[in-house]
Amino acid sequence: MSVTSQVSPGVQALERMVQLFDQALQQALDALVEAPVLQGDLVADDLAMDARILRDEGLSLLPAGFVLNAPLLVESSEVSALVLLQRAESVSRELSISQFPEGMSALIVRLVDALRDRS
């Protein structure tokens, strides 16, 4: 969809979540690159996997033909993947579940599970 005003608030919120998932994935992958080769970083690896799954599942919930806007810019590269996932979770609370595309509840459960596993 090219005109944002034609997109429902639920789709707009989901789009922001997908952008945050994508940024979380990039942050986790960057952390893996910076980790010592022999030790690795299991937390970043798990976060990268969760962020990739969440991003892909979120993309699948967007309407057919939907084109994502330019990614959101995080104010600092120091924001961790976990913080980005927490921000996505807060976006999910902005609207009632009925305003989101069908299947959103499963995505939210997966997100909450990923956050719970790291607390």
What Rg do the Cα atoms give? Answer: 15 Å
Count of helical regions: 4
Q: Write the H/E string, N to C.
A: HHHH
Mean pLDDT metric: 85
Approximate strand percentage = under 5%
Largest sheet: none
Helix content: 55-70%
Low-confidence stretches: 1-5
Class based on secondary structure composition and strand pairing: mainly alpha
Give the overall form. globular
Number of strands: 0
* Head-to-tail CA distance between termini: 37 Å
Description:
With 119 residues, this protein is an all-alpha fold. Helices cover 60% and strands 0% of the residues. It is built from 4 helices and no strands. The protein has helices at residues 9-34, 42-61, 81-92, 104-116. α2 (42-61) packs antiparallel against α4 and α3 (81-92) packs antiparallel against α4 (104-116).
Can you lay out the helices and strands and say which pair or pack?
Blueprint: H1 9-34, H2 42-61, H3 81-92, H4 104-116
Helix pairs in contact: 1-2, 1-3, 2-4, 3-4
Keywords:
single chain; 119 residues; mainly alpha
Short description:
The protein is mainly α and 119 residues long.
